[in-house]
Amino acid sequence: MKTVSHVLFITKEFQSEFQENTGGTGVFYKNLTESLVGKNIRVSVFGSSKKPFIIENKKLSVLFVKDYFKKYKVMEFLRSITGKISFLENLHFKIYECEIKYLEKELLKFIDNKKIDIIETHDWEGISLITDKLEIPCVIRCHGSWSVLRDFFGYGASKGKIHSEKRAFKKIDNIITISQNNEKMVEQIFGKKDYHLIYNGIDTDFFKPQKNASILEKSIFYLGNVSSEKGAETALNAFIKVNKSEKNSTFHFIGKKTNLVNQLKERITLEKLDKKVYFHGKKNRNEVVQLISQAEVVVFPSKGETFGLALAEAMALEKPVLCSNLEAFREIVSDKENGLIAKSEDEFANNITQIFYDKLFAADLAKNARKTIIEKFSSQIMVQKTLEYYTEIINK
Q1: Taking a C-beta distance cutoff of 8 angstroms, is the pair 100, 66 a contact?
Q2: Does pLDDT of 396 surpass 90?
Q3: pLDDT for res 153
Q4: Domain that includes residue 362, residue range
Q5: Is the Cβ–Cβ distance between 128 and 107 less than 8 Å?
Q6: Is there a single domain that holds both residue 390 and residue 331?
């Protein structure tokens, strides 16, 4: 039986000193790379970004070339124009194909003489298309394509990106989904495949209860972009209801600020809560651990998710969590066992108050929360299942 000795990741995000402020995909591939290297597996990473960079270590080789549309400004201009004019749609798609050819050429130079066993790419932008000429098995992991974001969450998306994603899924049979809910969405858009479920994993050695952490009494924390999609208004409205009876309560937003923040601040001022609501902004994971460790309860009122990574991180920190009634969240949270599920602002407010006053109940939720993550959603489990899937594919 063949074993996996060299993995190639193709991604437009890879968290490093050169790409510090990546999204979840960049953090995911950085963590997975470290885990594989720790198992003595060689990893190569290829991608493109605003600024090119190279990383070379004993078991790691990273090359990011300059983003095609940053390198060729004329093509960036044409992409913008053709995307807005319907009868130029085919030309718009051709421009994205030019990007694929550019990346394909650079990839071939990068992997020359490398004996790669398997390739993994993310689903967004159809980047797996650059592997077409390679006789190497390829896996797509569904982190959140533009197609899913557009159709299920109302995001705007370039027609060219959607077109590329559909082309990519037609060519690849090995697809990793990150939740049952994610799989339903992907199947609805891209059709039936032999999807393989591997939940995203949490580093439970890093996200763990902090010794001697000082809890802010009656504090409510929110972790995620401060946006309508993540339910920021719902969270604030629930806090306003709680604060009417719990005058010492405070609310803490942790996450990237959006245009919504100004509207929220106007409401906060109107309700005379300026000294009780804090906007901490986007924080690195060390800062997130320190802040969340102070929370009495952490809320996730999101309107749509494919998994719930931040939710799982808070649970790994052994915190009582309260989330909206989403299918993706219900795969992680069992109501009243390892967290609470709310269907309205009133339920969010009532559940927060219950956690404040029923300390034994809150402690049970918190302990069961961490136990759930360790047993079902740890990074160790995710890495092991990933390697098993890779091995299955290369031995077909």
Answers
A1: no
A2: no
A3: 86
A4: 219-376
A5: no
A6: no
